[in-house]
Known about the structure:
β7 and β8 (77-82) form a beta hairpin. The protein has one helix spanning 26-31, and strands at 4-7, 10-12, 18-24, 34-39, 46-51, 57-59, 67-72, 77-82, 91-97, 109-113. The N and C termini lie far apart (40 Å). The strands form 2 sheets. Strands 2-10-9-4-5-6 form a 6-stranded mixed sheet, with no helix packed on it. It contains 1 helix and 10 strands. By secondary structure, the protein is mainly beta. The longest helix is centred in the first third of the chain and has 6 residues, at 26-31.
Amino acid sequence: QVQLVESGGGLVQPGGSLRLSCAASGNIFKISSMGWYRQARGKQREMVAAITSGGNTNYEDSVKGRFTISRDRAKNTVYLQMNSLKPEDTAVYYCNIRPAVASYWGQGTQVTVSS
Length: 115
């Protein structure tokens, strides 16, 4: 059974930083591209960053240069380092494989950027 558990969210001021973590089931992590997604209130879920099993990355335009996705194979964990946070980054952040599988969505972790 696949399990993805997100953590690391919180309240941060504009310009601040957070690092999100996603602990994943072993097999799925090793063979899949992984993505970080977010859903702001009243909006559709969108992918913000992805990383392939080979380590190639891509980012949604609004986060390029501010967010960095990485993965630690030994820990079966994928990270999202978020710098220079803006109020519009406020959302619930989720991880999933890419393309996302509906049954893999976890609870997510809330990120709130506010002064």
